[in-house]
Structure prediction request, 232 residues.
Amino acid sequence: MKFAIQVNEGPYNHEASVSALNFTKAALEAGHEIFRVFFYHDGVNNGTRFTSPPQDDINIAGSWSELADQHGIDLVICVAAAQRRGIVDEGEQERQGKDGNNIASGFRISGLGQLVEAGIQSERLIVFGD
Amino acid sequence: MSILHTVNKSPFDRNSLDACIRLAVKGGSVLLIEDGVYGAMKGTNKSDMVTHAMKDLSFYVLGPDLKARGIDEEKLIDGIKVVDYSGFVTLTVENDKAQAWL
Prediction:
């Protein structure tokens, strides 16, 4: 079955990012397809490569990149939410005149249309957040 | 058509479990995750509401989130089924839609 996942909460707010990550892994293990993971609101904070949590912590942001690398899943960050929170890719760096970028590998910044499309193309949309 | 409802906040913190139970249609399922697992405990002032709702809805609770909070399965309301993440995925497949009560 084709799934879309929506993450509305950052990796260090409550538990939703970890729940979404565990659900995504379990769905892949069961042989399902993850059409897209859409990061919205504080969820965009999952997409920075500049986090360096203590070694005995789960590296949530890093885990998404690993998952994208292993399974080729599409990790999309909402552009308006990203601009507010300082999540920047090369395109945004240029557009906004920033001195660097911090997007993690496997992520891309795009618009809400990507969430709408994920809802249409997938058989289930599972939402995690506050 | 059946709907899987997920509730991720404690019923002692938010009213999302109350709202879910009030509006969920008979035949649906409710999965308690994250702090929502506190709603599965017996002997609380929300237990009667959940027990009553179980006449029309199937209740599940996420095992790893129970364990993370040190809640023993013996403390759960009778009839609530414990599932792992694989069971969570199965519930989303078995129901036609999933609704998160955030």
About this structure: The interface with chain B takes residues 1, 3, 8, 14-16, 19, 22-23, 25-27, 29-30, 32, 124-130 of chain A (CB under 8 Å). The beta strands of chain A are 2-7, 33-39, 75-78, 107-110, 124-128. The mean pLDDT of chain A is 97.
